[in-house]
Amino acid sequence: MSDPAVYVRTLAESKAIDISEMHPDSWVIGADTIVLIEHRILGKPDSKDAARDMLRRLSGKSHQVFTGYCICRKREDRLFSDTVKTDVRFKNLSDREIEWYIQTGEPFDKAGAYGIQGIGSFLVKSINGSYTNVVGLPVCEVIDFLIKEGVLADEYRLF
Fold first, then answer.
1. How far apart are CA 44 and CA 50, in angstroms?
2. 97-121 pLDDT tens trace
3. Is the pTM of this model over 0.85?
């Protein structure tokens, strides 16, 4: 398997570059998130069976959430990208909990078949790292870059 951090950052760069071609004067942010458990990448499930399999794999274990992000502006030929990793530990899930959660519909547009910011918060026992990274965009890192580069207007600067 290739490096998951590089893989997800490359996906984010591709998204941001595609959009920046259409909007060369704008700053564009692209992001992509994957879940990694036992050297296997979990994307978004495409069926109930896939969601069930992912949730069973995650049950009672720790996994990593990687979000690659890219910030670019075509007109200035500027591009910055990075990857953030967060460790997440799931509680032990019963089959009944898994089936109930699948029936909510929430797993189907989320990497790893769960959303920490939604109903799926009950699945998560602990995290080590950025919560917003698990949601899908490492907000602290993105804002830090935008401040450093002077992209945010003075009235929004924190320092």
1. 9
2. 999 999 999 999 999 999 999 999 9
3. yes
Tokens describing residue 41: 């990448």
* CA–CA gap between residue 52 and residue 35 (Å, rounded): 15
Q: Map out the domains of the chain with their CATH numbers.
A: 4-156 (3.90.950.10)
CA distance 135 to 68: 12
| Active-site residue, 3 included | no
HSE value, Cβ hemisphere, 13 Å, CA-based, for 114: 30
Contacts of 22 (CB under 8 A, 6+ apart): none
- Which candidate in 25, 32, 46, 95 is catalytic? 32
